[in-house]
Amino acid sequence: MTITLHEPRVRSVLDRLFGAAEGDDDFDAPWDELRSASAQERADALAGVYMPISARGGELLYSLVRSCRPETVVEFGTSFGISTLYLAAGVADNGRGHVYGTEMSEAKVATARGNLEEAGLGGVVTILPGDARRTLADVKGPIGLVLLDGWKELCLPVLRDLEPRLAPGALVVADDIDQESMAGYLEYVRDPANGYVSVAFPVEDGMEVSCRASSA
Length: 216
What we know:
Layout lengths: L7 H14 L9 H4 L4 H7 L9 H14 L3 E5 L5 H13 L3 E6 L2 H13 L6 E5 L2 H4 L7 E6 L6 H8 L3 E10 L7 H7 L6 E6 L5 E6 L4
Parallel strand pairs: 1-2, 1-4, 2-3, 4-5
Antiparallel strand pairs: 5-7, 6-7
Helix pairs in contact: 4-5
């Protein structure tokens, strides 16, 4: 069986993007000003910044998609499409399903679509431009897997929006859980009263994998 994730055209795109993402450390963003900016203003100001998941985090995403075989995958925060490539490779190898990504930066939307086409995975992904809380409202359930990697203060609101459409046993993965702004999200998914069984995975920056075990 072919493992799309290891195909040369996919690996070449991932290697190029991870290499370019190393330049994030040199980006001098006005962080103090951005803290009070709107989500759209931040997206526009950081249109050249990759903010990727780690390679190990991507392999975890691919493995989760292969194992749970979701019909619908939702990604909050596509950026240049690094995480999307891992999700899409899993869907392609399953032979079923579709990935719906979301991104506020128009420049990143165009580039991510190009990266997916270059990797041969554009056919299993739709990237929705704009505010995720509006664009994801039209994505039909049941949703089998969610990746939350957008603005951290919005991860919990986006999850709450999606909850009525989550499939029984759906997996919800949140990246960058080491950030202080994820504290409220973690408190929510780790509280059994909210219907999740949740585990932290020790990949770079930390990932939380939460199973929708019951309706709260």
